[in-house]
């Protein structure tokens, strides 16, 4: 299938690279990793990177592309295959539509090709291997983006999703001369204020009898400290990880832009994905999420997470 996608890349004069909305490092990394490599390889083609932006954009401004151009383009969508994760205008207009993803979901969008690799730690790893397989040179700029995507999704190679192939891929990217120290500082250095917020957050987490840790971040909390819902939801959940007594942790954050509560669920061994799916969400077995309308529903989620622990002990 790689070959077919490669020929689509070769025959299209314009290529639009998109990814899920509310991008994380892997979405950006795979997007710009592919973008920089293709730009170098095909200087005469029009190559665009599109989508919304946020504070994880360590790369460059996104492009605006006219519908008329999109309709003639190969559109490549990265790091998701679900409608609810996408802005419709990012993929609906295309000549051909291709997906690359490492999540367990199945596509609910029609496509021409879909490379689904749940063994890949990240879509960035998947794209790096795609480029290497086809002999497309990964430039230093591209390698930097792909490396950032990989460390984003593997927690700097600490999550279970890290495989020997992940490390092999990362080593190939290092050969391009990227500077790990510079990348780590760029992504992980934090301000004193930020550290203080984390402290406040951590000091107010709650625990169920089964030691499911959770925090409900309401609008009042976000406003009091002038915090972005996305930052609180995904950026602070790791404050509850790595605690011996806590096998499952969850973060519930009110997002006024969608008037919903974003639920992020994590665990070391328990299959929390079952719970996320019950509430219409998805993701990985140990790291997933869903959105609900009321705080009562978050209480039900907490009950379901508790039940997971009971089930396992039988
Ligand atoms: Mn990813």
Give a written overview of the molecule.
This protein is an alpha/beta fold and 314 residues long. It has two domains: 2-187, inorganic pyrophosphatase (n-terminal core) (Alpha-Beta Complex); 192-313, Diaminopimelate Epimerase, Chain A, domain 1. Helices cover 42% and strands 18% of the residues. It has 13 helices and eleven strands. It has helices at 2-11, 25-41, 67-70, 88-91, 123-134, 140-154, 164-174, 180-188, 192-203, 219-224, 229-235, 273-278, 295-313; strands at 14-19, 46-49, 74-78, 96-101, 113-116, 206-207, 212-217, 248-255, 260-267, 282-283, 287-292. The chain has a six-stranded mixed sheet, with helices on both faces. Helix 2 (25-41) links the parallel strand 1 (14-19) and strand 2. Helix 5 runs antiparallel to helix 6 (140-154) and helix 6 runs antiparallel to helix 7 (164-174). The termini are far apart. Manganese (II) ion (MN) is lined by residues 26, 79, 102, 122-123, 153.
Which keywords apply here?
inorganic pyrophosphatase (n-terminal core), 6-stranded mixed sheet, binds manganese (II) ion, globular, 11 strands, alpha/beta, 314 residues, 13 helices, Diaminopimelate Epimerase, Chain A, domain 1, 5-stranded parallel sheet, 2 domains
Cofactors, ions and other ligands in the entry:
manganese (II) ion
Per CATH, the superfamily of the largest domain is inorganic pyrophosphatase (n-terminal core)
Order of strands in the sheet with most strands: 6-7-8-9-11-10
The overall pLDDT average reads 96
CATH class of the largest domain: Alpha Beta
Strand content: 15-25%
**Poorly predicted ranges:** none
Distance between the termini: 45 Å
Which structural class is indicated by helix and strand composition?
A: alpha/beta
Radius of gyration: 20 Å
Q: What would the CATH topology of the largest domain be? A: inorganic pyrophosphatase (n-terminal core)
Extended strand count: 11
Q: Please write the string of helix (H) and strand (E) elements.
A: HEHEHEHEEHHHHHEEHHEEHEEH
Bulk shape: globular
Helices, by number, come to 13
Number of structurally distinct domains = 2
Largest sheet: 6 strands, mixed
Give the proportion of residues in helices: 40-55%
């Amino acid at each position: 299938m790689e070959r077919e996608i490669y020929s689509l890349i070769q025959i299209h004069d314009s290529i639009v690279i998109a990814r899920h909305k509310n991008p994380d490092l892997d979405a950006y990394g795979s997007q710009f990793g592919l973008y920089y490599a293709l730009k170098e390889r095909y200087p005469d083609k029009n190559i665009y990177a599109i989508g919304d932006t946020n504070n994880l954009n360590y790369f460059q401004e996104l492009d605006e592309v006219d519908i008329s151009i999109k309709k003639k383009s190969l559109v490549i969508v990265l790091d998701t295959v679900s409608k609810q994760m996408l802005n419709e205008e990012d993929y609906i207009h295309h000549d051909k539509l291709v997906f690359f993803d490492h999540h367990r979901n199945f596509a609910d969008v029609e496509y021409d090709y879909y490379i689904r690799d749940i063994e890949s730690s990240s879509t960035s790893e998947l794209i790096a291997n795609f480029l290497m397989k086809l002999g497309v040179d990964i430039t230093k700029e591209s390698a930097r983006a792909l490396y950032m995507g990989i460390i984003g999704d593997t927690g700097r190679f600490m999550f279970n999703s890290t495989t020997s192939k992940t490390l092999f891929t990362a080593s190939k990217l290092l050969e391009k001369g990227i500077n790990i120290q510079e990348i780590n500082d760029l992504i992980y250095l934090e301000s004193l204020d930020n550290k203080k917020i984390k402290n406040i957050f951590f000091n107010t987490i709650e625990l169920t009898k089964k030691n499911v840790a959770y925090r409900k971040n309401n609008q009042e909390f976000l406003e009091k400290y002038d915090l972005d819902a996305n930052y609180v939801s995904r950026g602070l959940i790791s404050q509850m990880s790595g605690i011996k007594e806590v096998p499952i942790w969850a973060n519930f954050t009110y997002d006024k832009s969608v008037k919903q509560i974003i639920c992020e669920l994590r665990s070391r061994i328990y299959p929390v994905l079952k719970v996320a799916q019950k509430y219409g969400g998805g993701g990985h077995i140990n790291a997933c999420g869903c959105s609900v309308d009321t705080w009562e529903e978050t209480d039900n989620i907490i009950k379901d997470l508790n039940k997971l622990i009971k089930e396992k002990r039988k």
